[in-house]
Design a protein that fits this description.
mainly alpha, about 70% helix
């Protein structure tokens, strides 16, 4: 009787997840929107060279011009080309959204796994801290922290890049509790599985169990939560930039474009339309793809996962467990 190797088993699971993901229309729509925005941001230099425009060049003689072959989306109040400025703004808004979501996921996963694995007082303290952060009014708190002038407390002023990094850190510091709860619940479920109990009985160190068995099994819900958080971070950055507390010049983001366009809503409403559509497409794409990924990672939507509990599987250190499962299934099918 042939026994599949751990590598082939993982490859089979990955192919099954990819097949389920590809079978969902929302994955194609969401992924297509995100890829289109990313491709536009990457092609910003080429589009600028093709049109012969500089998104940072101020031309007051050509301010608020309507769309033309040279300026397909017109010019803004400073005479800058709206199309190239919007594409370059995507290079700020998209990385800020992804970076904030990833940093929040790392913090939340660390807190959730530690709380679920240790239990007791550590679990109680970490979860009450999580509840306290969740109880805070997020938007007013973000506005308050973003408005702090660091130069007045001896830390020096922030440049454009540092202002973007500060937004990522601020959003991540208060965006991790949701991921922490998900990671804790998944860890509590995994640690009761037979392969984890067997590893503990054999004296396997906790670090090895966490790396080889717990983290791979909780990766699915954490990845889904991270994907869905990208849209929320982009929205938070856009709100802060709209209020003048986010990305600072000369960098541009979709939120700063909206902030500048609010005074021209009656004269040139399209100046607010285009960055607003980009924000809408990014948030919609992230949410659609996150929903599709959640369905694809759900073991109940397919039969390729060898499960003992709801979505749990032993790591590669326990081929004997998998072999016995296959034997039990073979006996059941023949009977």
């Amino acid at each position: 009787m042939s026994v599949s190797t751990p590598v082939s088993a993982r490859a089979s699971r990955a192919r099954g997840t990819a097949a389920r993901l590809a079978a969902r229309p929302q994955a194609w729509i969401g992924g297509g929107l995100l890829l289109l925005l990313a491709a536009g941001a990457l092609a910003a230099d080429g589009v600028s060279a093709l049109l012969g425009t500089d998104p940072q060049a101020v031309d007051l003689l050509n301010r608020l011009q309507p769309p033309s072959p040279t300026h397909p989306l017109g010019t803004d109040e400073l005479g800058r080309d709206v199309l190239t400025l919007m594409l370059f703004a995507g290079r700020v808004s998209l990385p800020v959204g992804l970076g904030g979501a990833l940093l929040a996921a790392l913090l939340g996963t660390a807190v959730g796994v530690l709380a679920g694995w240790k239990g007791g007082r550590i679990d109680a303290v970490l979860m009450r801290t999580t509840d306290a952060v969740l109880a805070l009014p997020l938007l007013p708190l973000l506005i308050l922290l973003a408005a702090v002038d660091l130069s007045k407390i001896g830390l020096g002023g922030l440049g454009p890049v540092e202002s973007a990094l500060r937004i990522v850190v601020i959003v991540a510091l208060f965006g991790w509790p949701g991921t922490a709860r998900i990671a804790r619940a998944a860890t509590l479920s995994v640690e009761r599985q037979p392969f984890v109990l067997a590893a503990r009985a054999l004296g396997v160190p906790d670090r090895r169990i966490l790396l080889r068995h717990v983290l791979p099994n909780i990766a699915g819900p954490v990845i889904v939560a991270t994907t869905l958080a990208v849209g929320h971070v982009i929205l938070a950055e856009s709100v802060l930039s709209f209020l003048g507390l986010g990305i600072q010049p000369p960098l541009a983001s979709w939120g700063t474009m909206l902030s500048r366009a609010q005074e021209l809503m009656f004269d040139r409403p399209d100046l607010a339309l285009w960055p607003g559509l980009c924000i809408f497409a990014a948030v919609l794409g992230a949410n659609l793809f996150g929903d599709a990924l959640a369905d694809a990672l759900d073991p109940r939507s397919g039969t390729d996962l060898q499960t003992e509990g709801p979505g749990m599987r032993p790591g590669p250190a326990f081929p004997l467990v998998r072999r016995k499962r296959r034997q039990r299934r073979a006996k059941t099918s023949t009977a």
